[in-house]
Every structure is written in C-alpha cells, then in structure tokens.
Design a protein that fits this description.
The complex is a heterodimer of chains A (439) and B (313). Chain A is built from 15 helices and 6 strands. Chain A has helices spanning 9-22, 24-48, 98-107, 138-159, 164-170, 197-230, 233-240, 243-278, 298-324, 332-335, 337-359, 364-371, 376-385, 391-421, 429-438; strands at 63-69, 90-93, 112-119, 124-129, 180-181, 187-188. In chain A, the strands form 2 sheets. Chain A has a 4-stranded mixed sheet with strand order 2-1-3-4, with helices on both faces. In chain A, helix 8 packs across helix 9. Chain A starts with 8 loop residues before the first helix and ends with a helix. Classes of the chains: A alpha/beta (439), B alpha/beta (313). The A-B interface holds A 4, 7-8, 11, 15, 18-19, 23, 227-228, 231-241, 417, 421, 438-439 and B 13, 46, 49-53, 68-69, 73, 75, 77, 79-86, 90, 94-95, 97-99, 151, 154.
Chain lengths: 439, 313
C-alpha cells in the first residue's frame, strides 16, 4: 500500500461526511435515536414499576387492624416490618365487628387497612381490605403483603421455639466443589470467574450497541460505494483519487457519522437517566451490576473505545469490499452477504461467550472469543468494564485486530481497483481470491 | 509538448483487450479514437487517465510519465455520472476540490459555465418560499441533456491542459450539439490537447486532424485524416441528372455504390475514368444537375476497416 494510494482521502472524507449529515435518512434516524434515548429511561422505569408509585416512598398506610384467626397468637407485629418506608405503620388487634370496622375504614379511616389472617391445613392466608377511595392503592397493599409474607415464615418458626441461628442453619445452601491438586499435592485454588445475570445483560447491551453501530455504518458505506458505481460518478473520482483513498475516506466519514449518532445517543441516555434519578426514581443504576463503576476508569474506557473502533473499521472495510462486488443498488443485499455472514459469526461467538461466562466463567472458549478479531469487538468491551478481562489480554486482542485489519487492507488494495470499475454480475468470494492472486 | 502513447497493452486473464497501441499527439488539437463497441477505446482512455492498470507500455506527457493526479486533465466519461441526490453545486465544488482548484476560482468558473451552458437555474436555483433549497438542484431532477452539460462543466472546471471526451455529443439535441461543438472549438482555440472518442463520423471529420481506428484492441488504421483520405484517391462519383443515365453507367462499366431516386453514387477507378464519363455525358447533351468527384468519407473508411471484421463476430 503506497502512500500515494491514499492521496485525496481527506477531500473524500469531508465531502462524504457533510453529504451524509445533510441527508434526510441520517437526520431522521438521528432524531429517532435521540428521541428514543431521551424517553427510554422514563419508559423503562414506568414499565418496570408496572405503572405504580415509587416503591421507596413512605407507605400511605398508617394503621393495620388485625383479625388473627390462626393458632399463632401473641405475634409481635412490630418485628414484622423491617422496611424503612413501612416502619411507621401501627398494628392493632381488631376488637370491633368486621362489618363495622370495614365501614369505618371505607368512610373515615381511609389510610387504614384491615388484615385477616386465616389458617387452613397447610396454608396461611393474609387477607387485606382497604377503602374503595383514598390514598391507599393496590400497589401499597401489594408491597405490605410482600413484606409481611417475607417475615411470616420466620415468625412461624420462632413460634415453634426454633431460634434464628437454628433456622439459618436449617436453610443453609449445600454447595459442592471439585478441586485439583498440583504435582506437590497442593490444592490449586480456582477463582470463581462466572458473572451475574446483571453483568450478562450489561455485556449483552454493549454487544448490541456495537452491532447496531456496525450495521449502521457498514450499510451506509456499501450503499455509498454502490451509488458511485451505478451512477458512474466513480469514473470522475478515479482521475484524481486512487480507489483505496476513496474507500478510506468513505469508511472514516461513515464511522465518524455513526460515532456522532452513538455518542449523542449515549449523552441523551445519560441526560434521560439524570432526569429520572433527579426525580427520586431508580434510573439505569437499578439494572447495572453494582460494582460496574469500579471498572469505569479512563484507561478501561480508552481500551473499549479502541476495540470498538477497530472492530468498526474492520467490518466497515469488509462492507466496502462487499459493496464494490456488485454494480446495482438492487444487488445490495446480495453483495452484503459476506459482510453479514462474518458479522454474525463474530456476534454469535460473542453471545456464546457471554452465556458461557454466566455458567462456567472464563474458560478456553471465552478466552478465544476475547481474542478472536471477529468477536473481540463485541464481547471484550463489556468484559473489560465488568472486570473479567485484563488489560494485557485486551492489548493482545487489539494487536490481533490490527493484524486482521492490515491483512484485509492489503487484500482490498489488490482487488479494489478492478472491483470499482467492474460492471456486471456480482463477483463471488472465489473470484475475489483469484483476482487477488492475478492482480 | 505532446502526449505519447507507446505500446499500450491490457488483458484480463487470457482475454486481450488492448494490444501494443501507440499514437502521438504532437500539436494542440483533437485526436480521434474510433472503433466499434468493445474495440478498446474506453479502456485506452481509462489507462491514459490512470484509472486502469496497464500490462505493458507507457503514457508520456511532455516527455514524462503522465500522472493524472498532478497533470491537469479533464474527462467527460461515456457513461454520465452524477450523484443523484446531492446538490449540483456541492458536487461541482467537490470535483473542483479534488483537482486542487481554489474554492473562489471554482465558484467563478461554475458561474461562468452555468451561464454559458444555460443551467444557471439548476446550479443556483432560486430559493423557494419556505424551503431553503429547491429540489431542482439535484441531478435526478435534470434531463439527460442537462446532466451532460453539468458533466462537461465538471470536466472543464480545472481549465485542463488535456481534455478527454468520450462520446461528447451522444444523446444531445441539435441545439445543444451546436453548443457543445462551439465549446470544443473554443478549447481548441486555447491550444489545448483533446482526445475524442465518438461514433459520429461527421463530428470527427469536423474536429479531428489525426485518428486511430481500433478493432478488437488493435490499431487498424492510424494517421492524418486528410492524408488517409488522399491515399484512397477520389473514387466516389455522385451524379444527378434529369434523365436516366443507367445505360451510360453500364456502358462505362461503373459500379453503383448507392442510388436515390434522382442521384447515383458511383465508384470509379480514378479521376480519368470520371472525366471520360463526364465528357461522354456532355457530348450526348445529357442534362447534368450534379457531378461531384470526392474522396471516401470517414464513415466509408471506417466501415471498410472494421465493418467486415465486426460482422464476423
């Protein structure tokens, strides 16, 4: 690849970038992405809270009248509610008749509820009654019921004379483990490298973010190249710029445009999250792994950025090559087969590795996925941020990705000049390889 | 100062598309590349422009290898190409920038050529009320002829020393054909070097002094057009008369190359035979309306050189 082959790429870059950002398709998708990001947090919050009030807010229930129709008597209700937002609730054994009390709750004491505890052969039932109108909603009753049910088991065991310590021992989990011994007979300690479901979803989120960025930029690059080929504009351009410079200018411009979209999306998501958190509702934090921010430092972010960018450059170059193999816009999907297939291989290896991390932790397959240039841009950024991939490993992955990109560029440099002027049927992979050997 | 093409060869695998092509343009003017479809004209032009890699040979400009990036070359491609959705002005400025034309100079030239080619309303569309840019400034909104004008403008924006025109007049109406011809004449008058590829023989005869006829990648005829014609001699006789002259034609043993209701196109051996034929007609008091003896046209030479070979395919 001679330096002269890249002369003029900056002009291609600036023109492509400006025209892309002026295009309706870009502007519309940009507005949609930003809008979705802005409304995402309130929407998710609403969906996950099932349309109810904030669960952390103090409960509007002031008093609970209790009818205890079970064999468990002398219950200390004050010990039942450990939740801070329910600590103010007063329990009182009901003396009045049920009908009179329910009328009183419905008409006068609307911030009180009636609890009837019954006992069948194998079931204890907690039955609540609330005013038809008033501050107490279904969700508050649900929260109170959940809190009481959680402690009711302990209460029953205590009533039978079993202490908390004895109860804890009875309920202790039984775990099995197999240890290997080294040549000296010493036990080799194995660190548990498996990840939680929250960490899995975090990796999954990053993986799809990378996939989306890849697809967006790569499709745009392929479309742009086919447009220039099918409209024959490329003949004008090739007088002044070499084919490789054309592609490099395009790839970088499209990556820049996509990056702008993605960064704007992240900023909008952050703003959305801040607004939600500011209102006291749980934002993104409730879905993220608790210790995620321990790994969120500038070095890790730079490594993740480099990995994602290298991945995008690799896939974008592949899309550019795929785009140049066809001559008509109708053949775009056919042309992108190679790109889509390669992208899916990387994606599925990444997905497989993240699932493996949940079950078995880091094993040879996961390490392979971390290092393999097709999958590393998908899986490794997330793994770095949850602390499951070391920086030396990330360095090796970056070097491997760079080698892959250089090899791809050398191949592209060989065949692109012929491809860009090719007008006819789609060039197959076999023909591409043959072309690279003959040029 | 000249353009010299020496032993240019190009093949795709086993298929040879250009074989040892050589020609030279010593003086400013128009050089014609002729040939049937697929003869290798566009391949030659693409190699000269550095778009295609050659297998063998060299292209020299002023004695040095031609570098299309550093040399000021203009190109009007056979298959017209513009970005369909981008504004015309943006594209023209982009093409100018790629040729290292300063923005202000480019703007001035775009204005000049827009006026000259009568496409001002598309390149600088009037602002439509309520909308910043009118849609009419996009290539996909233009007629084929207007798109061709924009492309000629793109080729001329850098005021090129060497201008390559591949089928410049194809698809143009008579008014625009004249407009394009006047611009080509103007470029010739500026002492520029032009290479023109065309199937329109009258246009070639009108502009070109030297030609190369290609057939299947090989040059089958090259040289100065007038000298080529002279070498064929004046063997075409056009006779128009009010009476039937068929008996005279057969008695002289002349070949009829073509016939219209009132005119014969005859082939004569030489000028003497034509003179004898004229003397006989005058002697017999045959009323003659037209008697024209001339060299073969480029069209006839072209057909003679590549016609049979083309039909063999």
């Amino acid at each position: 690849m001679k330096k002269g082959n890249l002369a003029g790429w900056k002009d291609v870059f600036s023109f492509t970038l400006v025209q892309t950002m002026k295009s309706k398709a870009f502007l519309i998708s940009y507005i949609i992405l930003i809008t979705l990001s802005l409304i995402s947090m309130p929407l998710v919050n609403k969906l996950f809270s099932n349309g109810n009030e904030d669960v952390n807010a103090p409960s509007p229930i002031k008093k609970v009248y209790v009818y205890n129709n079970t064999s468990l008597q002398n219950i200390d209700y004050s010990k039942l509610l450990t939740e801070e937002n329910m600590s103010h609730i007063v329990f009182e054994t009901a003396e009045e008749k049920y009908d009179a009390l329910s009328k009183k709750v419905d008409e006068e004491e609307r911030d009180s509820v009636i609890l009837t505890i019954t006992e069948n052969e194998s079931t204890f039932s907690l039955n609540f009654l609330k005013a038809r109108k008033g501050p107490v909603k279904e969700s508050h009753i649900q929260a109170l019921g959940d809190a009481l049910a959680k402690q009711f088991q302990v209460l029953r065991i205590n009533t039978l004379g079993i202490t908390d310590e004895q109860n804890a021992m009875l309920n202790a989990k039984i775990a099995t483990s197999v240890s290997a011994a080294d040549v000296n007979g010493e036990v080799i300690l194995k660190e548990d490298t498996s990840i939680s479901m929250a960490e899995y979803w975090f990796i999954y989120g990053i993986l799809f973010f990378v996939l989306m960025a890849n697809m967006l930029s790569s499709t745009q690059i392929a479309t742009s190249i086919i447009t220039e080929k099918s409209t024959r504009v490329v003949e004008y351009l090739l007088i002044t710029v070499k084919p490789l410079a054309l592609m490099v200018g395009k790839v970088i411009a499209m990556l820049f445009a996509t990056l702008l979209q993605m960064v704007s999306m992240v900023i909008a998501l952050f703003v959305s999250n801040q607004v939600i958190s500011g209102k006291g509702s749980g934002g993104l934090e409730q879905f993220l792994p608790k210790d995620i921010f321990q790994n969120l430092n500038i070095i890790n972010i730079i490594f993740c950025f480099i990995l994602i960018m290298l991945g995008m450059i690799f896939y974008a170059t592949l899309a550019g090559l795929a785009g140049a193999t066809v001559s008509r816009m109708e053949e775009l999907n056919e042309g992108l087969t190679l790109f889509t297939f390669t992208n899916l291989i990387g994606l599925y290896i990444g997905l497989g590795a993240s699932s493996t991390l949940v079950g078995a932790g880091i094993n040879p397959f996961v390490t392979f996925a971390f290092l393999f240039p097709l999958s590393s841009p998908f899986i490794l950024p997330g793994a770095i941020l949850i602390g499951k991939a070391t920086l030396p490993l990330a360095c090796i992955a970056i070097v491997l990705e760079l080698i892959f990109i250089i090899l791809l560029f050398r191949f592209v440099a060989k065949v692109y000049e012929t491809l860009i002027l090719h007008n006819g049927n789609k060039i197959k992979v076999k023909e591409l390889i043959h072309l690279s050997k003959t040029v | 100062m000249s353009l010299s093409v020496n032993n240019l060869s190009k093949s795709y695998g086993d298929k040879v598309v250009l074989e040892n092509l050589s020609f030279e343009i010593k003086e400013p003017g128009v050089y014609a590349l002729l040939g049937t479809n697929g003869a290798g004209k566009t391949t030659t032009l693409r190699i000269i422009l550095g778009m295609l890699a050659k297998n063998n040979g060299e292209v020299l400009w002023k004695g040095k290898t031609l570098d299309p990036v550093s040399t000021n070359v203009g190109y009007l491609a056979e298959e017209r190409g513009l970005y369909p959705k981008y504004s015309l002005l943006d594209q023209l400025l982009y093409f100018a920038k790629l040729r290292n034309v300063p923005k202000q100079t480019a703007m001035d030239r775009i204005k000049y050529w827009s006026d000259r080619l009568a496409v001002n309303e598309y390149v600088f569309p009037p602002k439509v009320k309520g909308r910043k840019v009118s849609k009419s400034n996009r290539a996909d909104q233009l007629s084929k002829g207007n798109q061709q004008k924009i492309q000629l403008m793109a080729a001329l924006l850098s005021d090129p020393e060497l201008l390559i025109l591949d089928e410049p007049l194809s698809g143009l109406d008579p008014v625009n054909t004249d407009l394009f011809k006047s611009i080509i004449r103007e470029e010739i008058s500026k002492n520029k070097f032009l290479i023109m590829s065309s199937h329109q023989m009258p246009t070639i005869e009108e502009f070109c002094s030297d030609i190369t006829i290609l057939n299947r990648g090989k040059a089958v005829l090259q040289g100065n057009l007038n000298e080529i014609k002279k070498s064929y001699g004046r063997v075409n006789l056009f006779v128009k008369s009010d009476v039937d002259i068929a008996p005279y034609i057969s008695s002289f043993g002349l070949t009829i190359a073509g016939k219209t209701p009132s005119e014969y196109h005859l082939k004569v051996k030489d000028e003497n035979q034509a003179m004898e034929f004229l003397t006989k007609l005058i002697g017999d008091q045959i009323p003659i309306v037209k008697f024209e003896l001339r060299e073969p046209s480029l069209h006839e030479i072209f057909i003679e050189k590549v016609g049979d070979a083309h039909e063999e395919r």
